[in-house]
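Figure 6 in text form: structure in, sequence out.
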């Protein structure tokens, strides 16, 4: 029979091993799981980093894919996929939406924007339904079965159909003019 200190040490070792296995990275104080289930498929953490605006840490952005990819074309070729934002400060729905709209405009042509206008309007409606997004909240943008499923803290808030819309949304982080260059690089595993 093991002594109490031996059992405690064994339990601590088990917990440490489990934590190492369950979390791939800690970024900005956020522990990111090494895997996520989307659409019944297991995805792996491709990469992530802290999104900053001026001097403020805004969120930890991360990307999950069925298999690792190091460029936008590789990401867009894989489905399902997830972009996750672990919020590091309180944000209004308008702040979040304005940033997404800026990213859509920066990375899409006028024709591409026109083609996804109805879906962009739907995104605005979903984001406004969030109200204020609090520090510690998690927003996910899952692309599965040809649609983008938006969740807040695991609760589905809306589904937006169409691959062209998801491609445009993914380019907010991974396009030619990403929200933040070092965030793009990190999400692509660099």
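Output sequence:
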């Amino acid at each position: 029979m093991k002594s109490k200190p031996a059992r405690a040490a064994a339990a601590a070792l088990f917990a440490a091993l489990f934590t190492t296995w369950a979390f791939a990275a800690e970024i900005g104080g956020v522990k990111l799981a090494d895997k996520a289930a989307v659409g019944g498929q297991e995805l792996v953490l491709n990469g992530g980093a802290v999104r900053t605006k001026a001097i403020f840490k805004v969120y930890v952005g991360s990307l999950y894919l069925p298999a690792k990819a190091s460029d936008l074309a590789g990401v867009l070729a894989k489905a399902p996929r997830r972009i996750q934002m672990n919020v590091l400060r309180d944000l209004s729905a308008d702040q979040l939406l304005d940033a997404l709209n800026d990213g859509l405009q920066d990375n899409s042509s006028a024709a591409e924007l026109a083609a996804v206008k109805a879906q962009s309007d739907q995104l605005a409606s979903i984001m406004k339904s969030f109200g204020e997004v609090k520090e510690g909240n998690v927003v996910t943008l899952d692309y599965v079965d040809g649609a983008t499923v938006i969740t807040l803290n695991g609760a589905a808030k809306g589904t937006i159909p169409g691959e062209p819309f998801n491609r445009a949304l993914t380019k907010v982080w991974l396009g030619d003019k990403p929200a933040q260059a070092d965030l793009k690089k990190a999400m692509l595993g660099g």
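Caption detail: Residues 5-21 have pLDDT under 50 and may be disordered.
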